[in-house]
Amino acid sequence: MPEDYYHSILNDSKKINERNRYLLREEIEKNAISWGVGIVSNLEIDEINILQASFLAMHRATKKLKTTPTFLLIDGNRFRPYPDIPHGCFIKGDGRFFSIAAASILAKTYRDDFMKKIHVQYPIYRWDKNKGYPTKEHRQAIHDAGVSPFHRKSFQLLDTQAKIKF
Q1: How is residue 10 annotated by DSSP?
Q2: Which sign does the torsion angle of CA 74, 78, 83, 87 carry?
């Protein structure tokens, strides 16, 4: 985002309702110096783990930028360095920097779009509502129908703890 950019409701994507996230996405795409979204498949996540997949997604997003940044602002406390661009890690950075907040909005809305798209193929999992999070309803669907090609196999999909009945 431009250095002097300000928006009164731009913040951590988890603190903004869905309607406003999509309004902000338009605003971000229009006003950003450059932007990119990095996608990592569930198969890749299973192969390299979720933390490494997060780093890979950030690298892929950086590679898509039309301009090369002079410094990368990273939300969190760890990052795998991107070649030739220095970075800083900032815990709760999406609440501190508009560029990180904007990235969180783009990541969340593009992921939500993907979840809505695959919901059409596999409506039993209710991805249009749970966005892939392991709600009780989602876990029940996995129990009833099994996993889809989009589920991460490395994630504990069902509770394996035995239940004691009295």
Answers
A1: -
A2: positive
For residues 28 and 54, is the Cβ–Cβ distance under 8 A? no
Quick check: pTM over 0.70? yes
Here the tokens at position 71 are 């410094």
Q: 23: exposed, middle or buried (C-beta count within 10 Å: 0-12, 13-18, 19+)? A: middle
SS3 of residue 74 by DSSP: strand
How many C-beta atoms surround the C-beta of residue 102 within 10 A?
24
Could you tell me how many residues make up the chain?
166
Confidence (pLDDT) at 154 = 86
Write the CA distances from 158 to 59, 89, 138, 153, integer angstroms. Answer: 31, 33, 10, 11
- Amino acid found at 164: I
Nearest to 109 by CA among 35, 49, 23, 42: 23
